[in-house]
Design a protein that fits this description.
By secondary structure, the chain is of the alpha/beta class. The chain has a single domain, classed as TIM Barrel. Helices cover 30% and strands 12% of the residues. The chain is built from twelve helices and nine strands. Strands 7-6-5-4-3-2-1-8-9 form a nine-stranded mixed sheet. Strand 5, helix 6 and strand 6 form a beta-alpha-beta unit. Helix 1 runs parallel beside helix 2. It is globular, with a radius of gyration of 19 Å. The termini are far apart. 50% of the residues are buried.
Length: 380
């Protein structure tokens, strides 16, 4: 087995992160849901046997990706824990993103841990119940999320907290950071920036210059809080950090699933983050792959460009050979400002947002205020 750290030379060979949407079923009605999740599973959802064959195929990549079981709410899938056990048995590090519903209790999290889950992803979109529950469509989800963070900490499973930034909570970034700093067990804060897909088309994105304000706050918290910070669908945060003299990627990720980095622990009682020494520039289709509940294959969950369908198509072959994946893996072919930008290989812009706004995944990032060689202007 190849034990080298994942590097740029791997982009065209296999992903670092593989997301499997095991079901679209979910009891919440989140305002910005990528999947437009529904109450019941779809009729064409992969069977358990098909899902196991998919996971086995993922394990056949020369470098096994991290596999995230997502949804919908993955706990709505009856055979979920058998799928997790199958992945763990093949040497794939599994993570799970349960929704904050009554299905997610201590027993469920313990079962997930015992099946092999090495990290949980939980969503928190506001510093108060009023804001967060407004996003999620149900009261009580805020307190439930804090409860799940506490349970995960007791189970010694690290938590990545996912926050989606829209007009609703842009002014609350600092408040959310302070709330997370008060929780034990948060290893990573993953800040998602809205892509208008699914129910997210009804939400309002922040303006390009406001990203720079958000990045300034995130960089401050990345240096001062006991958890790591990363962005999703805002790779221009890497450019911001570089221009501050930082090592973006040191926009640190959590320690490798299942492996401590040493004897020291951070303030959350978890191992310190591993720091990457060179920017990888992972983006949609470039280090990332997504398979929907029915087997449809996409470059990312937020980029609904169908590139095949399992089991008719091999996820290995699609990642390596499909024209869409190959185009996304070469930032020199991006258009407009992204194609000219000196940061295109470490940033490259959100390909999902470019597609959602322009219809072309290779077009320039529509929400970037940067002009080549200049600092962005903080003006509307």
């Amino acid at each position: 087995m190849d034990r080298r750290p994942y590097g740029k030379e791997d982009f065209g060979i296999n992903p670092l992160m593989f997301y499997y949407e095991v079901t679209q079923a979910c009891d919440l009605v989140c305002k910005h849901c990528r999947a437009s999740a529904q109450e019941s599973p779809a009729n064409d959802e992969l069977t358990d046997e098909e899902a196991k064959r998919l996971i086995s195929q993922v394990a056949s990549f020369p470098r096994k990706p991290h596999l995230v079981f997502t949804g919908g709410d993955p706990l709505k899938r009856a055979g979920l824990f058998k799928l997790i056990e199958h992945a763990a048995g093949l040497g794939i590090p599994p993570a799970l993103t349960p929704a904050a519903t009554p299905l997610a209790d201590r027993k469920a999290l313990e079962h997930a841990r015992d099946a092999g889950v090495q990290a949980f992803g939980l969503s928190l979109d506001g510093p108060t119940a009023e804001v967060h529950d407004g996003f999620r469509g149900f009261s009580g989800t805020f307190e439930k999320t804090l409860e799940l963070i506490a349970i995960a900490h007791e189970l010694r499973i690290p938590v990545q907290v996912n926050t989606s930034i829209t007009r609703r909570n842009f002014d609350l970034i600092d408040d959310i950071a302070e709330l997370l700093a008060a929780q034990r067990g948060v290893s990573m804060w993953a800040v998602f920036f809205l892509v208008p897909v699914g129910r997210g088309v009804e939400e309002e994105r922040i303006k390009p210059f406001e990203y720079e304000i958000a990045f300034e706050k995130l960089w401050k918290h990345a240096r001062g809080k006991p958890f790591a910070v990363k962005t999703t669908e805002a790779p221009h945060y890497r450019r911001y950090v570089l221009r501050q003299g930082g090592d973006p990627l040191d926009v640190p990720r959590p320690f490798r699933f299942g492996h401590k980095t040493g004897s020291e622990e951070n303030e959350n009682g978890l191992p310190h983050p591993v720091r990457r020494r060179a920017p990888l520039g992972i983006t949609d289709g470039r280090g990332i792959m997504f398979v929907a509940n029915n087997g449809e294959i996409y470059p990312a969950g937020f980029l609904p460009l169908k590139c095949g369908r399992f089991p008719n198509d091999s996820v290995v072959d699609v990642y390596r050979e499909h024209p869409t994946f190959k185009a996304l893996q070469n930032p020199d072919h991006f258009k407009g400002m992204c194609g000219r930008c000196e940061y295109r290989h470490v940033c490259g812009g959100s390909r999902a947002r470019a597609y959602a706004v322009t219809g072309d995944p290779l077009e320039a990032e529509p929400d970037c205020a940067y002009q080549v060689g200049q600092d962005p202007l903080f003006r509307g």
